[in-house]
Amino acid sequence: QVTLKESGPVLVKPTETLTLTCTVSGFSLSNARMGVSWIRQPPGKALEWLAHIFSNDEKSYSTSLKSRLTISKDTSKSQVVLTMTNMDPVDTATYYCARIVGAISWYFDLWGRGTLVTVSS
Amino acid sequence: QSVLTQPPSASGTPGQRVTISCSGSSSNIGSNTVNWYQQLPGTAPKLLIYSNNQRPSGVPDRFSGSKSGTSASLAISGLQSEDEADYYCAAWDDSLNGPPWVFGGGTKLTVL
């Protein structure tokens, strides 16, 4: 069974750095034509793509958040880590990780349950 | 402001057919496939349609997708109360100055 599970702090203070971990099972982060994305959703708002990393270590970031984001993976631990610096209350959201698959075109086929992160002093 | 444009709301009665539109541009929908996600209240999004019109295993054939030019549509026939959810379209974007993935703003479907 393929699963993704997000973990990290529930509450962070403004200006702090957020570190989120996505632990996957049922597949390997080294599988060809697979990757993992981070996507967030502020309360009551739409989905916003943040970053992705593929099995070949190719990475990409949201244009507006690029300076604050870093994504990495540890294949041996089956984990993908996202760090976001200088957190602000507007970053309060549920953060999801999702698997990327595709033969001809890419799509997110499976999502984690998400983790709600609140930014407040 | 989402890159892909969806109507904020849609509604229908049980048994009806409803459609949700998703409008983009030549760099996203116009040159790449469209995917649709269903988000039931309080849950994570779930893949509903991929590659414009393909249904993952387990998704009822009441759900169908189509694409024409820079627009796409999700159709739900035989509407059921359990279909009440938020629906999001998404696509890869080839724009050099934008993110590779773009989403619509979501459509809240109400079953009357």
What series of H and E elements makes up the topology of chain B? EEEEEEEEE
**Total helical segments of chain B:** 0
Helix content of chain B: under 10%
The main pleated sheet of chain A reads as: 7 strands, mixed
Please give a structural write-up:
Chain A has 121 residues and is mostly beta strands. Chain A contains no helices and eleven strands. Chain A has strands at residues 3-7, 11-12, 18-25, 34-41, 48-54, 59-61, 69-74, 79-84, 93-101, 107-111, 115-119. In chain A, 35% of the residues are buried. With 112 residues, chain B is mainly beta. In chain B, strands 1, 3, 4, 7, 8 and 9 form a six-stranded mixed sheet that branches. In chain B, a hairpin with a 6-residue loop joins strand 3 (34-39) and strand 4 (46-49). In chain B, 41% of the residues are buried.
Structural descriptors:
heterodimer, A: 121 residues, mainly beta, 7-stranded mixed beta sheet, 4-stranded antiparallel beta sheet, 11 strands, 0% helix, B: 112 residues, 6-stranded mixed beta sheet, 3-stranded antiparallel beta sheet, globular
Topology:
The complex is a heterodimer of chains A (121) and B (112).
Chain A: E1 3-7, E2 11-12, E3 18-25, E4 34-41, E5 48-54, E6 59-61, E7 69-74, E8 79-84, E9 93-101, E10 107-111, E11 115-119
Parallel strand pairs in A: 2-11
Antiparallel strand pairs in A: 1-3, 3-8, 4-5, 4-9, 5-6, 7-8, 9-10, 9-11
Chain B: E1 9-12, E2 18-23, E3 34-39, E4 46-49, E5 63-68, E6 71-76, E7 85-92, E8 101-103, E9 107-111
Parallel strand pairs in B: 1-9
Antiparallel strand pairs in B: 2-6, 3-4, 3-7, 5-6, 7-8, 7-9
In short:
Chain A is mainly β and about 120 residues long. Chain A is about 0% helix and about 55% strand. In chain B, about 40% of the residues are buried.
